[in-house]
Input
Amino acid sequence: MSELTYWVNGDFVPASQAMVPLTSRGYRLGDGVFDTERTFNGKLFKLDAHLARLEKSLRFTRIDPGMSMAELGRISEETLGKNLHLLEEHGDFWVTQTISRGAGRNLLESGTAFVSVIVEPLPFARFAPFYSQGVHLVAPAARTSAVSGMDPKLKATSRLGMVLADLESKQTDPDALTLLLDEQGNLAEVIYGNLFLVRDGKIRTPGGRAILEGVTRATTMELARGAGLAVSECELQPYDLYTADEAFVSTTSYCVLPVGRLNGSPVGKEVPGPLTRRISEEWNKLAGLDIAEQMHSYAARAQAAAQPATAARG
Output
């Protein structure tokens, strides 16, 4: 497997040689922000929208990246270009921009920001099975902290709370996606994604107070409304998801996945449901490819590549 190339604080380096200073506040304190896009057929999707959200995170955290979002966009495109010779091998990519405040214990004397752009293969094998069988959502005891803690609209590198919530749900089911509730017990979001449910032909999704307002979420809502479907943002409880006609989740990597179960109980009358299939078809048109088919194809490649190694060990 050929090595990927990253951009790290001004230099292009092989992924294995990319380093972060141990004194970096991003490494020591999680004092940083990031955003991530995916490619379709090797082209970055909605880069400007992701960079606009990143800029809001920078303004909120008072981190000066030392460059404009236009310049960071150019660097992101150039970093992707350094890796496009690996497109056939990997299928498509994640591209992530990460910016931390810099080095030093003194917050007001932390120095120049540390900026990186990395390219990673999309995890096709992770998500491929869920397009047909639906994903299992597990709601742990941990809640989002929209009022008392870090605002979830901030896409920060400080994510230990999410990690612990994810660990709790995966001890129930290693393949589950973690569903977070807010402080009042309302549905909020899945970790790294957003939630939609359908009842009586209408699509509903939690409002923006306790969630990261996903670019994929906004695109999904635009596609649904463009297809003549009703979409509303409102407070929703676990009851609404347990009793929904169908449900799906959205995020950058997999775009749309149907929900099959919640805490072990079936969700929906069929998986995927008719509106989930319709939204997926709209996504395929926008992306210019069959997203689920690409996931299955590259998941099968990865499985076939792993078989000789497995056989050799046996």
The first helix runs from residue 25 to 29. The two ends are 23 Å apart (CA to CA). The mean pLDDT is 94. The chain has eleven helices and 15 strands.
